[in-house]
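Supplementary Note 3. Input sequence used for the single-chain structure prediction.
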Amino acid sequence: MKKPVILDVDTGIDDAVAIALATYSNKLNVKLITTICGNLSVNEVTKNTLNFLQAIGKTKIPVAMGESKPLEREKDNSIQAHGKKGLGKYKFPKLELKTIKEDAVEKMYKTIMKSKERVVVIALGPLTNIGKLLLTHPEVKYNIDYILISGGLLHDSKRNPYLGFNVMQDPEAAKYVLQSGANIIICPSDHGHTAFLTPDEVEQIRTTNKTGEMLEYIFRSYKDRHVKVGIATHDPCAVVYVAHPEFFEKEMMYVHIRFLEKQQTGVIDFDPIKAPNMLVATTIKVKKFKKLFFETLKKMP
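The predicted structure, written as discrete structure tokens, is reproduced below.
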């Protein structure tokens, strides 16, 4: 039986790949996709999400628009790692898909509470929607199997930490989610750097099918300072964790949001000394990840 999941996205390039892997997975049932401001405004993120779903032929999955700004601060628009439009300069056909009328938080709540099985929430963007969901409906956490958070850097400098995008955009929401009592698993960005796609693999993607052609074109606008030559796969790794946790080594750790006064934001901090409070994916089996990636890509148009 497929595992019911909700994808919460701020659709840029690696989110799009994650959406493709999740919707074509034989292990996951994507019940809902919700959008959140992050890489771009929530309107632009939502348009990217709909355009991409239409392009890969997944037009029946409901999409609900989420929050337009962080819980307690203004949106930071200074970082653009995915091009000005989030999916590079790719030109999509006329958009026919539309969002549902309900907003993301209420639709997430109804989807989770009505599900016969506990739902996995895959958080691929800032945690604003999920923070608001848990603030508004704290009882929902009992129907959530776990929240899988894509973010944080395990092997990082404590003095000069890497400001992971998903947390730095809304550290207050991230702090609330981590302290909510919900079951949480962290899939750090290290895996996206370890399991990056090489130039030869990107060429293989391009020649696989029309979806592969689109992905290769979109990849041209992707920047990640940790992957000088190739394409980082942070959000795809997070989706693959939910579908195939056996591809990862895991460890219980103490995880919290550490606020940085100078940068006026926060980071996910992994503390090996304090008593563990949640599960962290520590290593990824790269060959298995890539084999699954190409097998799934071949199912797409």
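The domain at 3-297 is CATH 3.90.245.10 (Inosine-uridine Nucleoside N-ribohydrolase; Chain A). The mean pLDDT is 92.
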